Amino acid sequence: MPRASTRGNTFYSNNMSNTNDDADDDNTGSISGGGGPNNIGGTAFEPNAAHVAAVEKTKGFTVESMPNYQNRIMHIVLFIQTDYPHLVPLLVYELPDDVRKDPRYHFHKATHSIKWNNYTPAIMQSFMSGAMQWKDKEKGIKYTYDHLRKYHDAVLKCSEYSPYNYALPSTYI
Fold first, then answer.
1. Is residue 113 within 8 Å of 95, Cβ to Cβ?
2. Nearest-CA neighbor of 108 among 95, 117, 92?
3. Cβ atoms within 10 A of the Cβ of 151, count?
4. Mind listing the pLDDT tens digit for each residue in 123-168?
5. How far apart are the first and last CA of the chain?
6. Mean pLDDT of 2-29
7. Are strands 92-94 and 43-44 parallel, antiparallel or unpaired?
8. CA separation for the pair 80, 131 (Å, rounded)
9. H-state helical runs in the chain
10. Nearest to 148 by CA among 97, 72, 84
């Protein structure tokens, strides 16, 4: 019968208990039992070859998706330039040719990008509730949640590939 953990947290009790408390000397409440990120409860986790291949394929989706992400970012840039021109110097920068053509950043056809360190949730909310609310206003067709979510995903992913280390502020996420 599995014993309860002495850490005082019922989450780690019963069958999730670390049976080797001496292996976890850092007192962080980890169920890993020490030994790194692929060690689960004292047991090494080694994914099978099919799962490793699937993970690598999934990582490749980022590269395949970047042109679409960058196109969405250009929609946001256009929104800022049109509706908030006084914020352009703080939020938008033109991409130099050498950076735009650098394959590490996946800028595709983008000519401008965003200074992510100044980007706020209020800007994104304004974009989504104003510019992106209607697909066809005359017909009463609104964009769906899934479509809007793609813009948020583009912000998250493109901010990771900023050539000038313009990281999103922690308040955005």
1. yes
2. 95
3. 20
4. 998 888 876 777 777 887 777 777 788 889 999 988 988 888 888 9
5. 42
6. 41
7. unpaired
8. 10
9. 49-83, 88-91, 97-100, 121-126, 145-160
10. 72
Q: What's the CA gap between 80 and 146, in Å, rounded? A: 22
Type of residue found at 126: S
Contacts of 40 (CB under 8 A, 6+ apart): 31, 32, 33
Instruction: Indicate yes or no: pTM above 0.85.
Output: no
* Confidence label for 81 from pLDDT (cuts 50, 70 and 90): very high
Contact in structure between 27 and 20 (CB atoms under 8 Å): no
Backbone angles phi, psi at 14, to 5 degrees: 60, -130
C-alpha to C-alpha distance for 26 and 10, rounded to whole angstroms: 19
| Mean pLDDT of the region 102-123 | 89
Do 131 and 123 contact (CB within 8 A), yes or no? no
Nearest to 129 by CA among 142, 113, 112: 142
Residue 84: the pLDDT is: 95
Rounded Cα distance between 44 and 26, Å, is 19
